Amino acid sequence: MTRISAALRKFASLKVTCVLLVAFLLLTFWGTLGQAAAGNEGAALAADRFFGSYFLWALGVVPLPAFKTLAVVGALHLVASMMYRMPRIFSRVDSGRLVPSGWRNLGLYGMHIALLVLLVGSLVGSEFRQEYNGFRAAESSKPITFYTVDDSLNTSAVEVGEGYPYFTFYKGQVDMFGMKVDLYTATYDPFKFVPYAFMALFLLSAIFHYAVKVCRSHGNRVGPRTNVVKVLPALLIVMAGMICTPRADATEIVFIPDSVTAGVLDAPEDPVLVNGVLRPYDSFARGVLNEFSGRVTHKGRIADGSACKILYFIQISDFEKFVLEEKIFKVLRSDVLQALHLPENKRYVSYNDLNASRSQLEIYASRKDDHPATQEMQRLLANLQLFEAIQRGDYHMADVTPEQTKKFGVEVFYNHVNFALIAFILAFLGCILASVNSIFKKRSLDVTANLACGATAAVLTIAFALRFYIAARPPLSSLYEIVLLVALLLEAFEFGAFIFCKKRTFSLIIPVTLMAAVLLFFAKFILEPGDLFQPIPAVLNSGVFLTLHVFTIALGFAGMILSGVVAHVALFRQTRYPEATEKIQNISKLLFGTLVFGAGFSILGTLLGGVWADYAWGRFWGFDPKECGALFVCLWAMLTLHLRGGRLVGERTFALLNSFNVIITFLCWFGINLLGVGLHSYGFQSGTVMWLLIFILADLGVIFYLNSHNRGTLKL
Prior knowledge:
Strand content: 5-15%
Distance between the termini: 36 Å
Largest sheet: 4 strands, antiparallel
Mean pLDDT: 82
Number of helices: 24
Structural class: alpha+beta
Low-confidence stretches: 219-262, 712-716
């Protein structure tokens, strides 16, 4: 019995916790790559192989633990930890009576019990869960016919109950056998409540742990009740936001019939009908020209200026000769130029150039493969057809209400002010001033640099307010908008530290403003679309939980990026000022605080994302690549916090590990979008690989330099 107890104590150690976290990290990374390699057709099978089974069979013969095995080991480890490692809540006195002695650790126990509920509930629930595919003729009153997922030929219909534990979800409509058919999925899942139970218990326990223990350890002796009272207003604000957040319902998008007033589009505010939706002519023209040439302005023989002018000349037959010869189409691949018999040293070609090779273009574009050259051929053919549609006058002026006219005017104003560029210039200026101030140590330079940070935050705040008014929805539905939000949070943090913190870390302003400038550069010159207010997919127009999820995950990622920046500063200080113990301790405390902030909001944002996914897709979690990316960030943060909490690493190694936070966050935020796999298809981006690789290599070089000059300054 003693040997068993000793073995369980070793099994309950923080070292085993860290090993399990590393195993989950490796499995998440491997599973994400496996889904990317399998493509959209095989992503579901790949996800089930890594996350829905007990073992992976490497080379077909070597068993490796998959998610379910790690979940079993993790659940046993949580039980052992609560039995042997964590402080006791009750203790025995001489009379054998149990008395509460460690009630302040109830929050810690609650978080571990929540994780245990999640792991065990997920394992048990996966054994009972069954899925069915349903079909019904559109607008039919007949019952839905369901088949099991394994019945690919739909030969044997099954009965599916109504209400709990059956959950039916509408997937959409398709053409099948010459008729429109509504598609459904039904799930028998008596354990569907498990993630919600985990979320409620984990978040309440985390709040209790902070309010009772963490606040008290910082010198608050008023008592836990006061701490809870301090936390309640924040919770009420969050709940009010969930209830009062405006929703962009379908009625806010104006659909106009095709019978509209014909006219030539000229003024930027002119309303134009685009796929049944009213848009200002300026935004439409910018989007079209950006699709044609990758730019929103053009300098040529017929115009020297805006996209509106280019599209205006396309509509006017008197300028047809010049328009057809104007080189406004950009070809992105040299092999496409060669295949179409176009000059290989010319990146821009005219309509006549492309139309002369139209037969070859149509043949290549008709191929059913994912080769980049085929996709480029399809893009060029679509652009030719769009050019011809504009030339025919398929896009008309339309009648609008005074309110819509006002909103279109604001949208045109937003298009031409270029808020992202102004914010980038201000952020970069703040970084330059802060760098100069690190040499000359002038109060005036410090004030000016921080005013630049405040101005950047103000410009972005105005931009978000205008986007909210124009789009009639929270502007948090694209990667472009989220990057702007994270840059805003970083700049607001620095300006807030300048205003409110007497003992702020002056050297922190340089990397913070540099990171904000990098994000704004990325948003402006890589992510920014030609049409700044493109219609979003319907699944992203779903209100409260999406808004809360995106805003919260943006806070979390901003915190993780900030902790990575602070870690760089910590490594720099340990290198340059190894004798300045107090400064190193202060920066270590700041590093820990920013990491906890980033980890907390990343976890909360990921959970809210699960709630939204359940609302939008009918399932809380499915190990989609983007979900794996968010999970990887959370697991990495938990690993570094456990390593520090168990004193398994020193301050230098802790700073070194967290210096990778920026790279990890960028890979899980931007890198996942490059895979092109998963339900989050709205977030895919192209053309960012080079920039992401340059940033990662540059940051790795900085980390290597700081660490190579840092050895021996502090104990591991």
